[in-house]
Amino acid sequence: MRKRTPLRYSPNQKVEIFELEFLPHIHSIYNFAYRITFDEDDAKDLVQETYLKSFRFIDSFEKGTNAKAWLFRILKNSFINEFRKKNKEPVKIDYQEVEAFYNSDELNHMITSNLQVEAIKEMIGDEVSIALNSLEVDFRTVIILCDIEGFSYEEMALILDVPIGTIRSRLHRARNLLREKLKRYAGSMGYK
Amino acid sequence: MARREKLKNVKKPCPDHEKCIHVINLVIDGEANKDEEAFFYAHVRDCLDCAQYYKLEQSIRAAIRKKLEVKEAPEELIVELKKRVKDSFLNPSDDVS
Ligand SMILES: [Zn+2]
Q1: Does residue B56 contact residue A112 with C-beta atoms inside 8 Å?
Q2: Residue B61 within a domain
Q3: Residue span of the structural domain in which B84 resides
Q4: Measured between CB atoms, which of B49, B72, B85 is closest to A55?
Q5: CATH code 1.10.10.10 for A95-188
Q6: Each residue of A124-164: pLDDT tens digit?
Q7: Are A112 and B53 an interchain contact pair (Cβ–Cβ within 8 Å)?
Q8: CATH of domain A11-87
Q9: Which residues surround ligand 1, an ion (CB under 5 A)?
Q10: Among A4, A11, A140, B6, whose CB has the most other CB atoms within 10 angstroms?
């Protein structure tokens, strides 16, 4: 995307790539956009921008390669460049909580009972959603890319433009936070 | 059953749970190398802390995958995008953006 590459595709080929390789991912892209913006109109705008950019830069896309990761990367750049700039990011950055968590005795939290597993199995979508949505956007992002979209660590590093080590540590932190939120939830439901 | 009995008998705390947590997550994510996998299979089934952690993480992954509502892109957005892409050929001077 960064380098200008010479035109390679004919107009018909471009439409074909767009429709056969890019559009099939639109529901994943939209779902992700919604999960990072919490707003249907904003998600729509982001998806529209992503797809129009994908078409504008189509000559830098190698036909038959990983279109899904390529599109997610454009989406992530659009989100950072335009969306965040407009100060529309609705989620407070919860670094204090992150700090507090790391200062706590993590090991003690890890001794979990099977009841907690049962509680999580019984949770409804809204409860899982609230827990996920309460994570700061960078943490939410890696969970969605890994667990819902099934991207590998390497693909995630490409999409987010960070080293693979950052993906690992971000995922590790995200999972710790999510687990604690869900466990607290389970506790409030009477599971201990 | 026999397996549950076995787990009950293992009361020793995990010797290096930080490392185990790291490896368990790699295994669940399909990112573990051969050594990490071998360590996982050798250790986790005999360690109550790790077995519980593994189950909990798996149940969380499953909840994320199966319980969240999946938002689908509105049909009119797809129609609009197709149209704008095709229009860009009729009026090549117009940028699709
Ligand atoms: Zn262990």
Answers
A1: yes
A2: yes
A3: 2-90
A4: B85
A5: yes
A6: 878 888 899 999 999 999 999 999 999 999 999 999 999 99
A7: yes
A8: 1.10.1740.10
A9: B 14, 20, 47, 50
A10: A140
pLDDT > 90: percent of chain A: 56
**Alpha carbon distance A58, A66 (integer Å):** 13
Q: Cβ B65–A29 below 8 Å, yes or no?
A: no
Residue whose token pair is 């909990």:
B56
What spacing in Å lies between the alpha carbon of A63 and ligand 1's midpoint?
Answer: 45
Closest residue in A to B80 (Cα–Cα): A48
Q: Is residue B24 part of a domain?
A: yes
**pLDDT tens-digit profile of B36-82?**
999 998 888 788 888 888 988 999 999 999 888 889 999 999 999 99
> What span, in angstroms and rounded, lies between the C-alpha atoms of A15 and B71?
25
Q: What is the DSSP string of A4-52?
A: -----S-HHHHHHHIIIIIGGGHHHHHHHHHHHH--HHHHHHHHHHHHH
CB within 8 Å: A56 and B97: yes
Tally of structural domains, chain B: 1
Over residues A26-42, the pLDDT tens digits come to 999 999 999 998 899 99
Judge if pTM exceeds 0.90.
no
Residues of chain A contacting B90 with CB distance shorter than 8 Å: none
